[in-house]
């Protein structure tokens, strides 16, 4: 499996991300781009994306970015996640770009930027996040 | 509205929390207890609660704990959230206990503990979180 | 070496903590109390303890709390540190209480509370912190 | 005072940073570069820079970056600081680059990268940090 197949498989096997409607826009070793389109189940009472939706997308994108940077048979699971909410997540979709900052045999660190999708090129960054992940043996995913 | 009515109203008005099936177990000024029962839309591929579900519950519990500690007409919105995942969130439900650490006129800090619900008294703590929130004027919630 | 001897030895061998004048008040497996008395080299321009002094004390207390909870021959090194500054660190001394939240074979998590030392029993908490640490083989300290 | 004068004045007035030997390499609105040369008072027992020295430098660089982006008469004070230690801070000096991520009327967020200074262009990043800061009225600094 290449990076994109791996991330698509894991995303489809993850109830939380599948229910959210997560789209894998891009995945290469150490770098992923994931997208969530707006829908009521992801929102705050004010109509913006909820902090938990932003955090969940960032977490999943970080795990995917780290896992694709690891040798086959290893995955990265989140140890801690820090999210800074910079601006209302009020786009028609939000898009997370995750990038590995360090990869070790036991620990990976990934930084994530989350953008409000915009019609023009000026997509505004609505959150940044840092995830620390631990490297573990990959479980078998049901076919 | 007292604290419990306020938290129930906000939770019901929040698509993300309502879709997740959030139950307000307890709410008093500066302290809230919220609960999520297990269901597929909240899980990792391994059957545990997803980090985004844990983070979302912690975030909402923190916002509710801070808001109930503020004067009427003010609410607290999350500026940043830090979650440490201590153990698999593998309970039949997870329960977040949020408690205000400091309340100011512009900033609140809330600590959260998340437990796996267990049949006996030995509920295991699966995550801890700290949220920094900003105090803003409350918007009107649609009746 | 027992926990207290270990923490005193490591603290004395650490230039940053020794220069700061760190006092080991208490050390038992998984729990440490460290103290810094006020002096100009630790302060902000406003006369309060600098955020770096608070963070350094919290970091060292966390490392000591985790290391004393590990088997002999292992130490814990900080992977990430999150500090919330709750109130001015304006005591005549600051005192950090660190307590292990989880201990694993590769990762430990420690929570820290930092207090302004007060003449009476009402010491105010000026910061809280969470540290994630990695377990590694202990280096030899020069005798 | 321009940005560089402001940062130099605040750094000189701050006992912790002055004792550490902080050098202001660059300062412009929203962006600062600060440097610490190695000396025993800043080190771990293993001879690397201590986590508290790294955190203190990152904190000060973040505060300076935010303050220079604010209107005259306002300063930014750290509410919380999150540091990820990516690699040993084993340079002959460490250099922090701080950059404002968002500036508001009450809250600023700043990201920081800390590098081990190297003889060649390949300086390695040893830490990244995110600071959340609160905007307050500037106190008068003693001339």
The helix/strand series of chain A, from N terminus to C terminus, equals HHEEHEEEE
**Percent helix of chain A:** 10-25%
The fraction of residues assigned to DSSP E strands of chain A is 35-45%
* Inertia-based shape of chain A: globular
Structural class of chain A: alpha+beta
Q: How do the strands and helices of this protein lay out in sequence?
A:
The structure is a homotetramer of 143-residue chains.
Chain A: H1 3-12, H2 15-20, E1 23-28, E2 31-37, H3 51-67, E3 74-85, E4 93-103, E5 107-116, E6 124-137
Antiparallel strand pairs in A: 1-2, 2-4, 3-6, 4-5, 5-6
3D architecture notes:
Chain A is of the alpha+beta class. Chain A has one domain (3-137): Roll (Thiol Ester Dehydrase, Chain A), CATH 3.10.129. Chain A has helices spanning 3-12, 15-20, 51-67, and strands at residues 23-28, 31-37, 74-85, 93-103, 107-116, 124-137. A 6-stranded antiparallel sheet of chain A has the order 1-2-4-5-6-3. The longest helix of chain A has 17 residues, at 51-67. The first copy, chain A, is globular. In chain A, 57% of the residues are buried. The model of chain A has no long low-confidence stretch (mean pLDDT 94). Chains in contact: A-B, A-C, A-D, B-C, B-D, C-D. The interface between A and C is small, with 9 and 9 residues.
Question: Could you write a compact summary of the structure shown?
Answer:
With 143 residues, chain A is α+β, with helices and mostly antiparallel strands. The first copy, chain A, has helices at 3-12, 15-20, 51-67; strands spanning 23-28, 31-37, 74-85, 93-103, 107-116, 124-137. Chain A has a single domain, classed as Hotdog Thioesterase (Thiol Ester Dehydrase, Chain A), CATH 3.10.129.10.
